[in-house]
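Final report, Chapter 2: Outcomes

The project's central promise was a pipeline that accepts a single protein chain and returns its three-dimensional structure in a standardized token representation, suitable for archiving and comparison. That pipeline is now operational. To close this chapter, we reproduce one record exactly as it appears in the project archive, with the input sequence first and the structure output second.
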Amino acid sequence: MIICAPNVLTAEELGAIRNELRDASFVDGASTAGWSAREVKKNLQVAINTESYAKLQDIVSTAFLRSAMLQMATLPTATTQVLFNRYDVGMTYGPHVDAPVMGGIGSAVRSDVAITVFLSDPKTYDGGDLVVDANGMECGFKLDAGAAIAYPANSLHHVSPVTQGARYAAVIWVQSQVRDAGKRELLWDLDNAKRQIFSREGKSATFDAISKSHANLLRMWADV
């Protein structure tokens, strides 16, 4: 399941992020990649443990928790730190699968869902599409600044080379309450269905029946 969520960041938040990125300290992005992904990861990342990074992470983490769509889609129980990356002309991230477990002892997170928050206006750079392999078919995404995409972290994906301008994005990985992607999709569909029924009928018998099924399936499948 791939979900695109518009306006995860407000215009004010985007402005604050861009101000921080302007003076942030960047390091080689390969430093956080696994041994094989390191061979194809050609980008820069904001250095962690800096004042700029702390401000940036607070803004994006708050926005993620505020987004009802992302919360419904991912059912988060834990998240990684947010990574902020920059792709200048010629930079790319070749085909790879994200590490299944991230973090260290006491802070390990199973990466069920990856979320990319686009920070650059798509008109300001060429290339830099996020390309996700969805059941053998490649789908490219280049969203508006402030929008986010959530996609399975176990999928093969890459960022195409930037040919003009600079591409900035934030990436966060989520450990879901429901490990199985197929079950998460069923819960997503049921949640959307009950909201649509409520908007038409209010708290009807049909709404109650679907709400009961949604709640009991989540209770059955949740790993908390």
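Archive annotation: The mean pLDDT is 94.
This record, like all others produced under the grant, will remain available to the consortium after the project formally closes.
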